[in-house]
Structure formats: C-alpha cells, structure tokens
Amino acid sequence: MNCKFVPSICSYCGTGCGVLFEVIDGRINSTVPNKSYPVNQGKLCIKGWNLHEYINSFMRLKAPLIKEDGRFQKAAWNEAVNHAARNFSRIRDESGPDSIGVLVSAKVTNEENYLAQKFARATIGTNNVDHCARL
Amino acid sequence: MDIINQVEQLLEQEKVDIFLGYREIDGHLIPHGFTRENMDELRDLRVSDQRYSLEKIATHLAEKDPELKIGIIARECNQRALNLLYTWNQLKPENIETITVNCCPSKLKHHSDCSYLEPGKTGDVKKKQGVDPNTNPAGFMESYNGTQRFSRWMYEFSKCIKCYGCRNICPVCFCTECSLEHPDLVEPGNLPPEVPIFHLVRAVHMAGRCIDCGLCEEACPAEIPLRLLYREMNRIVSDVFDYRPGEGLEKSPFTMIGDKVTLEPKPMDAQGEK
Hints:
Chain A is an alpha+beta fold. Chain A is 32% helix and 26% strand.
C-alpha cells in the first residue's frame, strides 16, 4: 500500500487556495488544506474540503459528448472540436458575430485568458467577452 | 541516531510497512507515506513545524488494510490522539510504531511548539463581544454570567462560514455515520443546521474525546476559539469522571458499546478536593 500527498490548487473559485490530496493506492481519498500555503494558511471553505468528491464522482465527464437526435453520445476530441467549430461558423454566418459570447475563467492562466479573448475578437469578431470574477 | 536511520531500520526489519512522516515539495512540508519499495525517498524525510493529523491518515490506511503495520512521527498531541483511537478500536496498538519527536521550542515552554503556548493578540471587538481564546476556561466561566457567556459564544458562532473544517480535520472525529451527512437529519439540497446547533452538538460529542490538539482552531477560517470550548467541556468530564482523553489507554466513561458501560462518577472524596 502506498500513500502520498499531492499539492494542488483548489479548482473552484479564483482565490486559489492550496490543497493537498491524500492519495492512497492511486485514488484520491480526502482533501486537506496546505498549512504553509500563503493564500489560505491551512484553512478552506466547504467546497475545498470536498474537492475529492467530484473527482471520484461517477457522474464526472471524462470524454466530450455530442448531442445527436436529442441524446448525448460519446465522441473523440477531434470530432467534438470540429463539430463545435462548424456550428460556431454557422451561427456567426447566420446571425452575425455578436450572437456569440465568450466567458473566460479565473481558474485558467493569463495566457489562456488572452487566447480566449483573442479568439473572440479576432476569429469570431465580437467584443462579447466576460469573466466570472466580474460577477 | 537520527530519525532517517531509525525509520530505515523499522522498514528494513519489517516492523512497519509504511511510515508516515513529512517531506518537502515545492517548499512545503507535507505528509508522506514512506515504504520499503521507495527507500531512496527516505533522504527527504523531515520533521515538520506544520502539524497534520498523521494519525487520521493512519486510520484511513487501516480502513483499507486492517493488518497494515504503520509507523508514525508523533508529537505529544499525536500520541494522545493515538491513545484515544486505540481505546475506541479505530487502530490496533500492536500495528502502530511511533517515533517520538520533540515539539519545537516556544518562548514560553521548552521542547514544545504548540503555537497556542504563545498567545496571539486579541482585537478590541473580540474583547467586547466575543471570547478571548487566551483565557482559561475556568476564568471565563467565573468572569461572566450565563447570559453574557451565551451572547459572547453566539457572537463567535455567528462568524461560522460552515466549512465544517473542524470536523474534517479532527483526528478523533471517526464516526462511520456523521449526523451531518445523514439524509434524514440534514436533508440534501437544504441549508445546513442553523448556528449554534452544529457547534453545540459537536461540543457535546467532544466530551471525553477531545485530546486538545488544537487542529480545529487552526483550521477555522472564522477564528472561533473552539479549543477553549472543548477544554471547558472536558474540564467538566475530568471533574466528574476523573477522565482525561488520550492520557492513557483507559476507556472513556462515555463508552456505550463493548463489554461494560463505564459511566461512573469518580469517588466522592476526589470531588471534594477541588
């Protein structure tokens, strides 16, 4: 049996609390706050304390799904990305670029947020870019 | 002999299958299970100033494999928690091997790193309305009457953000079915119990159990002086039953399951002494 603690960052809000995952035999068993992490200093909220539950949830999506005939079907990543791209182009051509909005996230890197807004402005052609931290 | 050699011997002589200590990752000292398969990791074994509940990890491991032999770096508080877990049949003493380490020095007491030994400052608002975590429980009981104590504790409890970290981090919180997770008591999708229901129920549960390690207070984002509350709880237990949780391998007077119920007050003469 092996047991290790893997440091990570809470995936819920933009605060970015440091957590440790207790991993026993390759499976995350519980979450504890990282005591020496400068952001949360050994404290967490109820969502952070229960991070391991959604990681282990049987309802967790592990592959992209495409809705066909009213039902979600498992799809390959390539297929899903192409499907999304096709439909975005169709919507933009039919209803104009401002019919699409892009929501970015506090939980991704600056660079990824930059790419997302670039995608919205340069590729789609809209200024409809918003962010969860503005709520 | 330094601690790394001690652990190496324990593992090589098969006295333990896994040793719970600390190692450094990205500048953070975090718990780690050292095993025979990864002996080279032992180089990174450290004793940490940060306290994690290693004995709680041990109960998680024992849950998966009851015969697993576990070694633990133990301070005084870890040892008290282990004693309590033995008496409540959560761990088998013959499967646990401890290496005792000094608590680190504090200004007030040598060989002790309990941050609580060096009292923090208490703000004005807390002095006026709340409970000063630095007071001793008996002094607090004497200084205020019942109404004042209630309003001061309610001030503290009302800060609670309901993270239930105090429950999650507690080494002696081991009930298989926590009433907080019982769908008949706390309906899923509804708000958790009102202040102060949870706090007082938990305080009662801590009678004869709390080993005063202070991890709950350390984990509380709202800085509720939980340690003081549970200390007072156990002052009563100690006065009435002459029982101090975790000090020895004596069963708690509140043990209801097992060979006998031990809910007996201590002899009258001992009570007369105080």
